[in-house]
Amino acid sequence: MPAAPAAPSSAAPQTSCFPGLRAASTPPAPTSPTEAPPRILVIGFGNPGRRDDGLGPTLAARLAARELPGVTIESDYQLCLEHAELVARHESVLFVDAAIEVPGNAPFHLGPLQPLDQVSCFSHQLSPHAVLHVAAQCFGARPSAWLLGVRAADVGSFAEGLTPAAERNLTAALDAALAWLASATTAAQSSSRP
Amino acid sequence: MTETPPTVTTAGSSPASRTRRYTINPVTRIEGHGKVTILLDENDEVVEARMHIIEFRGFERFILGRPYWEMPVIVQRLCGICPVSHHLAAAKAMDRIVGGEQLTPTAEKIRRLMHLGQIFQSHALHFFHLASPDLLFGVDGTAASAFAAPAAQRNVLGVAARYPELAVQGVMMRKFGQEVIQATAGKKIHGTGAIPGGVNKNLLIAERDALRQHVPQMLAWARGAVKIARDFTMEHLVELLPFGSFDSNHLSLVREGDGALDLYHGVLRAVDKDGHRLVNDVDYQRYLEVVSEEVRSWSYMKFPFIRTIGPEKGWYRVGPLARLNTCAFIPTPEAEAARREYLALTHGRPNNITMCYHWARMVELLHAIEGIRDLLEDSDLQGDDLLTHGPRREEAVGVIEAPRGTLFHHYRVSRNDEVTLCNLIVSTTNNNEPMNRAVARVARDHLGGKPEITEGLLNHLEVAIRAYDPCLSCATHAMGRMPLQVEIRDGTGRVVATAARG
After folding, report:
1. pTM of this prediction?
2. Strand partners for A113
3. How far is CA B29 from CA B10, B133, B283, B347, B451, in A?
């Protein structure tokens, strides 16, 4: 059972995506100010065309099928800069990725993330830490963030579909994600009470 | 998978040979990876510099036997960076296979909107997050230290820390372009909107209105981006004019009839360094009569050239710099005004300054958002006539101006609907020889004869390569990681010094 996510930072602004811009030059933001901000975000990332590298998107798809209220589900091949803006609009974020090594050969690992001033060697993709860093630098947002790494068996093949081992790990990780979501939902509800 | 942060290690000098080995692994802030080797003589002068591509993609092989209608979707898997370009180039070829190249107005405009969304997000990403660290932190007015800011600062996080407003603009412009793609292709990455003979969806009123509300902001930021690129260029002309520069030919599509800039469709035009016409508005179905490709033993990336001129002098550049040199005008007013100001730098003649790619790219960024604005006002986008077809063909070529330059897709399809031939010349491959020349020029000007080659100086090579916004993911025939190293060798070919990050 994972620990409950930390309460959202008091420094996390949820009302503006453009704290660094002058108001006079800031016409409507891409997110309507009247839209209620989603509170919890799950981002599954990886390449479903490389077998178990698709663990993140697959887990995201299975969560999306449950149509959980107040939970935004995002799925992509890789983390990019625009994800920083998406992250900045949420109080709690769960990144889900395939993992080659998991301590103790467990099916998954779930742990908290901090922003890091660290860039990937690949220009177009960022690490979850870097996404959090850009969210903080550009949008002044510091959501509670966690990484769920699901152990993969094969990320080298050019094929779709998970290996049986990864499928078993995914089942366990899905339970962990649901437990995390329950904790995050409780935390979000308590933080929104007057 | 998690990436390791860049690190820098430098090997010491070898007293016996007075030479060093330097490796950058990988060169950062380009899309994908490759390898650069620089050969020094005994006086530490550069005698040769090459950009190698060392892995094999093989995409043209493993799609053989697949049904033709899968092509617009499959070929996007070449790359997660500009999948829309491959999607549309393949779709254009397959239009001809099904005899549906005369698209309905709705289908053509949906595709054009999709393509402009791709151009907009790609150009914004490159300028604000890949190139801007070089521009914002690099040039301090002395040629010796140009582009030599600390490596830790030369990345998007450095930009976000010092210029959060610019970083936000880059993020939001990229996001807007992705939303245009999602609305037209169905998904932000690897969409399915274009199908042989048309599209599978139009643009809903709600989708149109959601995009429309952001156009004024995007236009304002695009105007600002043109100004940043122009001001940067004009303020640092002394450093930028020679930086990786050389005279070249230029090739692109232009609109048939009037020669306007057209990123989606047109005829092939090439001009030489002075603007003389080398290829005069040729139907791209005949592209094999126009271009040929040379193979060199040290690289998997081929070297295209204009067939009638030959490999030695027929190589050319593609992409924003080339497009502004080949087109007669830009058919949107603000971008056309920006183009005229841009051309004033070279007195109306073709611009051969490598670092002007950035300025040209921003002129195109402005054109893209003007085009998006105009299309979002067009009711044809809500039409229901999405598909057309005609007499079947067995062979077809699709060409498009991708963000990085001209992209060729060539297919043959059997009567059983199976693809039997596929040839791709991707944008970055077209720029292979120019990138090699840029590397050689920078190596000669900035690395040769130096008592010590610093990491900052090695970044000069990256700056020159980055001007082309290369996407080695598809150009380099590789799947997965393609580390780009810089090695320096002595006259015997022995690697003698290393500075690595990776």
Report:
1. 0.84
2. A145
3. 20, 10, 35, 32, 27
pLDDT at A156: 74
Where would I find the H helices in A68-127? Answer: 82-88
Residue A62 and residue A174 in contact, taking contact as beta carbons nearer than 8 Å: yes
What value does the mean pLDDT take over residues B282-293? 96
Residues in chain B: 502
Angle at B365 between CA B360 and CA B368, to 5 degrees: 125
Q: Residue B460's closest CA among B147, B141, B130, B30?
A: B147
Q: Report the residue from A30, A125, A130 with minimal CB separation from B172.
A: A30
Q: What is the ipTM of this complex?
A: 0.74
pLDDT band at B78, cuts 50/70/90? low
Query: What pLDDT is stored for residue B118 in this prediction?
Result: 95
Q: Count helices and strands (H / E) in chain A.
A: 4, 5
For β-strands B35-40 and B486-489, DSSP reports them as parallel
Q: What is the DSSP letter of A2?
A: P
Chain B residues with beta carbon closer than 8 angstroms to that of A47:
80
* Bridge partners, B199 (sequence order): B194
DSSP state of B127: I
Cα dihedral value B453, B459, B463, B469, nearest 10: 130
Task: Kindly determine whether residue B157 and residue A84, on different chains, have CB atoms separated by under 8 Å.
Answer: no
Beta-bridge partner residues of B198: B195, B387
Alpha-carbon distance of B413 to B421, in angstroms, equals 7
Residue B90 and residue B410: Cα distance in Å, rounded? Answer: 8
Cβ partners under 8 Å of residue A193, min gap 6: none
Closest CB to A137 among B77, B80, B167? B167
Separation of alpha carbons A135 and A139, rounded Å:
5
> Which two three-digit tokens encode residue B354?
């490598």
Q: A100 at the B interface (CB within 8 A)?
A: yes
Which residue in the set B77, B130, B178 is minimally distant from A82, CB to CB?
Answer: B178
Q: Which residue has the tokens 């002309």?
A: B237
Which helix (H) or strand (E) element contains residue B206? helix B205-212
3-class SS of residue B46: strand
Confidence of residue B457 (pLDDT cuts 50, 70, 90): low
Q: Residue B142: pLDDT above 60? A: no
Please tell me the distance in Å from A138's CA to the nearest CA on chain B. Answer: 5
B48: pLDDT strictly greater than 90: no
Residues A71-118 pLDDT 10s: 999 998 888 888 999 999 999 999 999 998 888 889 999 999 988 766
| Position B81 confidence tier, pLDDT thresholds 50, 70, 90 | low
**Mean pLDDT over all residues of chain A?**
78
pLDDT of B39 over the 90 cut: no
Residues of B in contact with A150 (CB under 8 A): none
- Indicate left, alpha or beta for B204 from its phi (over 0: left) and psi (-120 to 50: alpha): beta
Q: What would the pLDDT profile of B247-257 be if each residue is shown by its tens digit?
A: 999 999 999 99
**Percentage helix, strand, coil, to 5, in chain B?**
45, 20, 40
- Set of chain B residues whose Cβ sits within 8 Å of the Cβ of A49: 77
Instruction: Please indicate if any CB of chain A lies within 8 Å of the CB of B49.
Output: no
Q: Of B48, B39, B465, B14, which is closest to residue B243 (Cα–Cα)?
A: B465
Size of chain A in residues: 194
> Considering chain B, what percentage of its residues have pLDDT values greater than 90?
57
Q: Which of A17, A31, A80 to mutate to test the interface with B (most CBs of B within 10 A)?
A: A80
Q: Which residue, B36, B23, B8, B15, is CA-closest to B476?
A: B36
Task: Tell me which of B292 and A186 has the higher pLDDT.
Answer: B292
